[in-house]
Amino acid sequence: MLRFSHTAVGVQQGRAFLFSAFEDNGPMWTGTGPRVERVPVSFATPFRGPPVVHVGLSMWDISVAANQRVDIAAEDVTASGFTLVFRTWADTRVARVRADWLAIGPADHVDDFAVD
Description:
Blueprint: E1 8-20, H1 27-30, E2 35-42, E3 52-62, E4 71-75, E5 81-88, E6 94-107
């Protein structure tokens, strides 16, 4: 459990278009085996410390000719951002993907003392 102590709690959300592989025959659409796409995400306002980040698919365009194998996660979470990671494997063919994310963490408060 992440405890925020006496600090304010900040919430930020966003959307990331990860790739469109079918237009240019990219590896997510034409390849086989393990494939990964990494997209850096920066928060509009940094948190006081690393937040909890939840990610989910908000759009996927995927072939039904094979099993649909997908893994999506937030990695390398810091106070200023994270890396959105999409993975697939075997013969799965993914044309395009969009993900939404939600970050909840400690934030600055107007009553905090400034430390220089």
